[in-house]
Amino acid sequence: MTTGELIKERRTELGLSQRELGERLGVTGSMIGQYENGTRTPKFQTLCKIAAALETQVANLYGKDVSFEDGLKILDK
Question: What predicted TM-score, i.e. pTM, was given to this entire model?
Answer without folding.
Answer: 0.82
